[in-house]
Amino acid sequence: YHKRLFENASKYHSGEPVSGILLLYPSCVLHVLESCIGTIHLIIQDLAALQHQGQNALFQEIKVLVVSHNIPSRLFPDWYVTTVTPSVTYLQDTTQAQSTQEVLTECLLLLFKLAAHVPRTFEDDSDDLNNNLHTLAPELIIPAETVNFLCNAEEFSSPEEFLKMYLNPLQPAMDSGTPPMALGT
């Protein structure tokens, strides 16, 4: 799926490869994608199309957590995929006692630590990362419970909801019928 998706994206946005990481858990996945905004927009469109496939879709309960623009450098030098095996266990699920903001913050902190660890450990062999990340750095792997919690959080948009917000600028109608004024300092 991802190989086809990235090939399709590169047709429209040549010269801007996709980097990031895909963590495959038994019941969920976590994508971190780095590319130009056009490629990311194309990928989110494809994920939105998946939602219309219903229960037969490759992915269910898809959420867009963060989209950042004008990042000075990438976190990941390449695209990595690793399977997080069920043997990775965690003592307890602490997400239920935390706010969504706290869970997201913890998730992002682990991702930054993981991104810092990947280039140092796997400079020459991305296949080694794809096969061994969960065993070589289990403390940096986001728990599946965290991913599931964030996918079920109402605060985050589905790809379709995200695209509606992205494509429709905020233009609230005012009672007087005149267009709203911009405020600034």
From TrEMBL:
Stored Pfam families: TEX47 (PF24787)
Top-level taxon of the source organism: Eukaryota
PANTHER family the record matches: TESTIS-EXPRESSED PROTEIN 47
Name of this chain's protein: TEX47 protein
Organism encoding this protein: Eudromia elegans (Elegant crested-tinamou)
Gene: Tex47
